[in-house]
Amino acid sequence: MEPALLVTLIVIAVVLVLLIVWIWVTYNRLTKNRIRVDEAWSDITVQLKRRADLIPNLINTVSGYAQHEQRVFSEVTQARSETLSASTPGEASVAENHLQGALRSLFAVAEAYPQLQASNNFTQLQRDLVQTEDKIQSSRRYYNGSVRELNTSIKVFPNNVVAGPFGFGEREFFDVADRAAISEPPRVQF
User: Fold this and answer.
1) What angle do CA 126, 131, 132 make, to 5 degrees?
2) Residues with Cβ < 8 Å from 81, sequence gap 6 or more?
3) CA separation for the pair 131, 88 (Å, rounded)
4) CB count, 10 Å around CB of 126?
5) Which of 16, 71, 104, 147 is at a distance of 20 to 30 A from 156, taking alpha carbons?
6) What angle, 0 to 180 degrees and rounded to 10, lies between the N-to-C axes of helices 89-111 and 70-85?
7) Phi, psi for residue 113 in degrees, rounded to 5
8) Which domains does the chain have, with CATH numbers?
9) What DSSP string runs through 71-132?
10) DSSP 8-state code for residue 66
């Protein structure tokens, strides 16, 4: 075999090995980013479920004092159902808008009842809800950061050469159409 042909074959083999290593490293990095996004979404769903579990207790506490406010209670119950059935960030965003509005209405009703505001059960539920809202905000920030990192990794060259054929797709941000509705947790002024 001629030395020039041997050098050419070695160069081709080295380039192929480097290409395979680069594809492997890129695939693993994209996979880690995708897993991070899935984990972050799971954290959000856990917090949304926790909040949804608090809502029936809150409704029961308030309804004991304000039985004539059935419309508000049914709106909160409906919004809670939407939150529990949301499976994508887009669906969760719409459900968040509805739930935040319904909770504001519920707390507005509660403000009219001083004896309710003095109830230890009500104040503990309110504290738990505010803590959960804070955790949802934190989880949403982490999720959106993870989505941004994954989406950027998928779009940039040369990663996009690996991302497409291996089925890596962009993820949806957990954004809310009405930012004012979720800008702060529901509050009750005593």
Assistant:
1) 95
2) none
3) 23
4) 22
5) 16
6) 160
7) -125, 95
8) 3-182 (1.20.1440.20)
9) HHHHHHHHHHHHHHH--SHHHHHHHHHHHHHHHHHHHHHHHT-HHHHT-HHHHHHHHHHHHH
10) -
**d(C-alpha 147, C-alpha 92), whole Å:** 16
Question: Which tokens go with 167?
Answer: 């089925």
Q: DSSP readout, 143-182? A: HHHHHHHHHHHHHSTTHHHHHTTTT---------S-HHHH
What size, in residues, is the chain?
Answer: 190
Burial class of residue 179 (count of CB atoms within 10 Å of its CB; 0-12, 13-18, 19+): exposed
Token pair, residue 180, equals 């004012």
Q: Residue 101: name the closest of 190, 175, 44, 182 by CA.
A: 182
